[in-house]
Design goal:
- This protein is mainly alpha-helical.
- The protein has two domains: 49 residues; 67 residues, no CATH class.
- Helices cover 69% and strands 5% of the residues.
- It contains five helices and two strands, in the order H-H-E-H-E-H-H.
- The chain has a two-stranded antiparallel sheet.
- Helix 2 packs across helix 4.
- 2% of the residues are buried.
């Protein structure tokens, strides 16, 4: 059983998957930082800083008017946090678009690397040595 486990771990697919997961986690941190620190503030400028996170409906319990979602949850109220869901959907769409643009750019670079630059122009081949010798022989016969 130990040998089977060693064979399983040594296979390339497992190692590739492990590297993919590690790179994916690091890439996720980069994309989250890009969206949270660069893109969302720019979008906030155009939308007037709209943030739906604190929009909720109280299902049961007592909550002070105008309390934040966090305060309502701390008070023990049962809340329907539709604003947090809307913000999660917006963030997902932004992240998905950013990832799409990055993948598109990477694919273009990869395609450029795989495509040869310009094919060399074909040089017309002259007559072979045998053809020249045959012409000389025929010319000598005529003379």
């Amino acid at each position: 059983m130990l040998n089977e486990f060693k064979d399983f771990i040594a296979k390339g697919n497992v190692m590739d998957m492990a590297v993919g997961i590690i790179i994916g986690a690091a890439f996720t941190a980069i994309v989250k930082a890009m969206v949270g620190d660069l893109i969302n503030p720019i979008i906030g400028l155009f939308t007037g800083g709209i943030d739906f996170t604190n929009n909720y409906a109280v299902l049961s319990g007592e909550v002070a008017a105008g309390a934040s979602l966090e305060a309502a949850r701390e008070a023990g109220a049962s809340v329907f946090a539709y604003g947090a869901f809307i913000m999660a959907v917006i963030n997902f769409l932004i992240i998905a678009f950013v990832v799409f643009m990055l993948i598109r750019y990477v694919n273009k670079i990869k395609e450029m690397a795989e495509t040869p630059a310009e094919p060399e122009p074909e040089v017309e081949a002259g007559p072979s040595e045998l053809d020249v010798l045959l012409e000389i022989r025929d010319a000598l016969k005529k003379a």
